[in-house]
Amino acid sequence: MTREVVGVSTVFSKDIQSAFPISWMLQSRELLDYLTDRLGQKQDVFAIADFASGEYDRVPSFFLEVLSRVLDENASMPNMLVYCIDLHPLRLESLAGKLEQNDLLDRVRLVEARLETMDSEARFAIPTQERLRTRDVSLTWIDQVIETEKRIPRESFSLGLLNNDIIGYLLEYYKKSSDLSASLEQVHRTLRKNAFLVVTAPCSVVRVDNVEILEEVGFQFVEGVDVTFGTGDCTKFHEAPDVEDLSMTAHYSLLVFVR
After folding, report:
1. Strand 3-8 relative to strand 233-237, pairing
2. What is the 8-class DSSP label of residue 118?
3. According to a count of CB atoms within 10 Å of the terminal CB, is the N or C end of the chain lower?
4. Spelled out in words, what is the top-level CATH class assigned to the domain 3-258?
5. pTM, 2 dp
6. Contact between residue 84 and residue 127 where contact means Cβ atoms under 8 Å apart
């Protein structure tokens, strides 16, 4: 296994890294280059999918409030939208309240859907329905399909997130009511060709080989990142890391894939 110790990250302040652990993903040079290039194409909507988002608001808040400080200090990134996808409407309503407080709801779409069937069954959660009906919000082509056909179209998203060990979570808590393989196949289908997928905190719930599981449905491993909390020391994995090396105590790990 090839690994590289890159030292302490200085991309963000310690306060930002603490509030938004997902910010460590910018330690991936390939991902950073991809984001810089794609977000520079301002005529094109850059749609991000937070799969099985729950009520966690750090993902949309990071992309819509913090990321511009690195990629373009003067940009508000109006072409970026975050789609938070979850099965549970109450979680999405709770998320809507948090986003409303930070005035982010116009740039976030809350989508009620099961991962394994989202390309055939999906709908906007009530807060987003009301927002689109009462505010002067331009609909993207993705919005139009969800609104009229009640599904998420294939090859919609330019970046996908499986945050906080979603694979382990599905295996541990939803193994009787959900199909992991079908869910990940849907994740693959709804991402655009050459889009990136970021998996955060793998193995923190269940120690399984995330790389093997995702490669089986068509993803290609790019690299892994492991950060030691407290010191900020960062190690990169250029080959699939051992399960035991991920999400250790006082560490934050993430894996980067391309579709």
Report:
1. antiparallel
2. T
3. N
4. alpha beta
5. 0.92
6. no
